[in-house]
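Record 1 of the preview.
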Amino acid sequence: MTAPSLEIISTQLESPNLRDRMVALANLRHISPEEAVPLIKKVLDDDSLQLRSMAIFALGIKQTPECYPILVRILETDPDYGIRADAAGALGYLGDNRAVEVLSRAFYEDTDWLVRFSAAVSLGNIKDSRAYDILIQALDSQEVVIQQAAISALGEIKSIESVDHILRFAQAEDWLVRQRLAEALGNLPTPKSVSALKYLEKDSHSHVAEAATISLQRLEEIGNQV
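->
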């Protein structure tokens, strides 16, 4: 089955039928970023939040120079917190280091936890060490999911200096927090990381113990490469 033409997709995106518009947007996966982005822009202000969410995600995948300013505008101005969170997530997919400042500001200033969570995750995806201070602050969040995101992100940016800060979660009540810690420590080769991972290998939750074993193997490989 051949993919629809650009003309057909463009027409479908203007259909009064939501399903038609969603199918058209999905069909853009076969289209080059340069051709797809002008069509994605047609539904960025759609009445359907679900379609808008799909469009924003698409901007993170179909990357052109135009995507970054569009996503920043949505993150900073959209009244819907879910849409702002989508924009924060899409900026992480772009991997553009310019977004560190924008995402940090969103973490500090946005009042919704979902936006702050997405910002923390994306700061990890961008892998820029400038995110260190804000991620350390995020460890003190009252939202457990934000703690999880911060731990993971500190591992992603390979912040050795964060080890002392994240080890306090080795006995966290939430097993997902302990799992994120075990995964993050696999990117942070220090003697303390190894000791903590050996402790986490004995965790009562199998996912945590498995993650610790994998991370220990990774640290051993890193050590062998040095």
